[in-house]
Design goal:
The protein is an alpha/beta fold and 263 residues long. It contains 11 helices and 8 strands. It is 42% helix and 14% strand. The structure holds 3-methyl-2-oxobutanoic acid. 3-methyl-2-oxobutanoic acid binds next to strand 6.
């Protein structure tokens, strides 16, 4: 049976920590689904991870729909959350509503995620049967307004604002809340004040769940990664080794051999 937002709420009440991973394609989604990851997020990190953009701002609805549909096709059990891209919900509630509908109707997503305290939008979506995941703290779509990718809620005033935004999003009906790049103490306090699960990324161990960008976890990225990233594999090295062995075998005539040829 597929994980639902009721399960997320149950995990919180049973104090069961859970994992969320990003996925952008069918193959990876099927591996994560079979591995028992309960929630897959088709993050707009797609922009940097898969499409080679500098940040998430250029990501379009069309790109998100295309990748979300592929991820949904790769899953049987995981709850798939689609990230609403920059410009798809900031203009008006009506626009956000019709774009959110597209994720459920055209791509088969089970929930959408929005950045910032979008209380009225969340209320409208939830009232019309669209589960909403909220996202506070470092919200990458506001990178220019924030002056870069910085840890948020470091002052008492900003921590208080985050706390009150979190409560407003919960009241609006959000099913979970991503907390990105905030001090662990702030995330712990927010988590214990809410009945919905918090999903941390760079927010310490006091959150109810943790999310990571799949390519960071697998060690596929080439550059410097943020402090919170823990690599569980070094696939970049593994892939490089494998393709170089293939190249060497082809160049030396070792491949294809008898075993890999038809007679
Ligand atoms: O786009 C994304 O991958 C995200 C997660 C990092 C939370 O928003």
């Amino acid at each position: 049976m597929r994980v639902t937002i009721r399960d997320l709420s149950r995990f919180k009440s049973e104090q069961r920590r859970f994992t969320v991973l990003t996925a952008y394609d069918h193959l990876t989604a099927s591996i994560l689904d079979e591995a028992g990851i309960p929630v897959l997020l088709v993050g707009d990190s797609l922009g940097q991870v898969v499409l080679g953009y500098e940040n998430t701002i250029p990501v379009t609805m069309q790109e998100m729909l295309h990748h979300t549909a592929a991820v949904v096709r790769g899953t049987r059990k995981a709850l798939v959350v689609a990230d609403m891209p920059f410009g798809s919900y900031q203009g008006s509630i009506a626009e956000g509503f019709s774009n959110a509908i597209r994720f459920l109707k055209e791509a088969g997503a089970h929930a959408v995620k929005v950045e910032g305290a979008r209380v009225e939008l969340a209320q409208t979506l939830v009232d019309h049967g669209i589960p909403v995941m909220a996202h506070l703290g470092l919200t990458p779509q506001s990178v220019h307004a924030l002056g870069g990718y910085r840890v948020q809620a470091r002052t008492q005033e900003s921590a208080d604002r985050l706390q009150s935004d979190a409560l407003s999003m919960e009241k609006a009906g959000a099913c979970a809340l991503v907390l990105e790049a905030i001090p662990a103490e702030v995330a712990t306090a927010v988590s214990s004040s809410l009945t919905i699960p918090t999903i941390g990324i760079g927010a310490g161990s006091g959150c109810d769940a943790q999310v990571m960008v799949i390519t960071d976890l697998l060690g596929m990225d080439s550059g410097v990664s943020p402090k919170f990233v823990k690599r569980y594999a070094n696939l970049r090295e593994t892939i490089t080794g494998a393709v170089q062995s293939f190249r060497d075998d082809v160049e030396s005539g070792k491949y294809p051999d008898e075993q890999h040829s038809y007679r």
